[in-house]
Write a structure and sequence with these properties.
Length: 279
């Protein structure tokens, strides 16, 4: 996931290096002109360091390319917005995060979600959600009002019954067997998936153990319409908005879908998971 940030930094650095080359300046010459160290120029150009907005403005002036400033600044702002630190979000507690998500989801018409080891939040039962949120709280060392936050997450699920919304869920079979809470919690959760899979605007696909798709992502992600990709990591929430990256994740979603079972096939796998859990 961090590779997307690194790639964006490298792309910005390459653009800046081309400007310097077009101006006929060496790295040392540009550094001297700006009063920087040569290592700073090198780190920016190779993506090891992100420039500040002031750095970008000084760079384009030194290279005599003021017309490039707007595009480069937009690239930098997109890079900076990719990461939203969990520590900042948790300032308002996990309930604050749930409220923010509700606002974001209201703007989205079509959701595509892939998860490999967890049931997506919009499909979780109260018991399963409590187990997941308690785990998140322990991981971040953050006190939460668990009951209130679970209630907020469950209220979010009302959006599933909106006819102006479309949902496409891909869930790896491993998530059905990776226990969150006790056995009864998992059985109830699987029963919830069976129920939701019958909604006309909701598609639930299960990727079975024994039928690997052409490509199986190692991390979960959400594609909102065709405007953004949301990825949660252990430390942050990554938002991708570059057209090329969104298209790549849409392609990955289609590849993963090729190995999934839907409708009766998905429900067969869900019933099988229930039998395993009950034995």
């Amino acid at each position: 996931m961090t590779h997307s940030i690194e790639r964006a930094r490298r792309g910005l650095g390459q653009r800046l290096r081309k400007l310097r080359g077009s101006a006929g300046l060496t790295g040392n010459q540009l550094a001297n002109q700006l009063g920087w160290s040569q290592s700073k120029v090198s780190k920016i150009e190779t993506g090891r360091q992100a420039p500040s907005p002031e750095d970008v403005a000084a760079w384009v002036r030194a290279c005599g390319a003021p017309e490039a400033h707007t595009d480069l600044l937009a690239r930098l702002r997109n890079l900076e917005s990719m990461w939203v630190e969990w520590k900042e979000q948790l300032g308002g507690g996990l309930g604050g995060i749930q409220s923010r998500i509700v606002t974001e989801e209201e703007r989205v018409s079509q959701f595509r979600a892939y998860e490999s080891m967890i049931i997506p939040g919009l499909l979780q039962t109260p018991g399963y959600a409590a187990a997941v949120l308690e785990m998140v709280s322990r991981r971040n060392g953050t006190a939460i009002g668990l009951a209130e936050t679970v209630e907020q997450r469950i209220r979010r699920q009302e959006i599933l019954y909106r006819r102006d919304k479309r949902f496409h869920f891909l869930i790896a079979e491993a998530a059905l067997h990776h226990r969150r809470g006790d056995r009864d919690t998992m059985i109830e959760q699987i029963d919830r998936l069976i129920s939701v899979s019958g909604l006309s605007n909701v598609s639930v696909g299960i990727i079975p153990f024994d039928a690997p798709p052409p490509y199986l992502p190692l991390h979960g992600f959400w594609v909102q319409d065709e405007d953004a990709v949301i990825i949660e990591t252990a430390s942050a929430e990554l938002t991708l908005t570059h057209r090329s990256e969104i298209e790549q994740y849409l392609h990955v979603f289609e590849m993963a879908s090729a190995g999934a079972r839907f409708n009766d096939g998905a429900r067969e796998l869900l019933h099988r998971a229930t039998r395993v859990m009950s034995s």
